[in-house]
Design a protein that fits this description.
By secondary structure, the protein is an all-alpha fold. It contains 6 helices and no strands.
């Protein structure tokens, strides 16, 4: 039994973003999961890099996510928002590589993040082709 029982407010799944495209789209699910993983890991950066590399990585990841949301919600801005998302994704890839080279991410963490970004990039490219 949930603490929400009887109030008509059962908790939603972590991938429930409302009705329609966002809820069902693999790019949103993968981006959400990866962003969550990434934010959990950047908090472990040394204090000297938390406000430098961690902030840039977090900003790029969240800006990417914002661009995806904009592309869904405002049809007239879709193509531009997706191109901007592509730029943020590229920026994120470079920051992650730099972080790995600085010893802030292990090789295993870097490989995991790179594989996720490649998959997200493929999904973004497919979406752009449809626009």
């Amino acid at each position: 039994m949930s603490i929400f029982s009887g109030f008509g407010a059962e908790p939603q799944s972590p991938h429930f973003f409302g009705r329609g495209v966002i809820q069902e789209s693999p790019i949103f699910i993968k981006t959400y999961d990866f962003t969550k993983w990434l934010l959990e890991h950047t908090t472990r950066f040394p204090k000297s890099q938390r406000f430098v590399m961690a902030k840039r990585i977090e900003d790029a990841a969240l800006n990417f996510y914002d661009r995806l949301l904009l592309a869904v919600k405002i049809e007239t801005a879709r193509k531009d928002a997706l191109h901007e998302a592509g730029f943020e994704l590229e920026r994120l890839k470079h920051y992650l590589r730099l972080s790995k080279d600085m010893g802030l991410f292990s090789l295993k963490q870097y490989e995991y993040s790179s594989a996720n970004l490649v998959e997200i990039g493929r999904l973004l490219g497919g979406w752009l082709k449809k626009v």
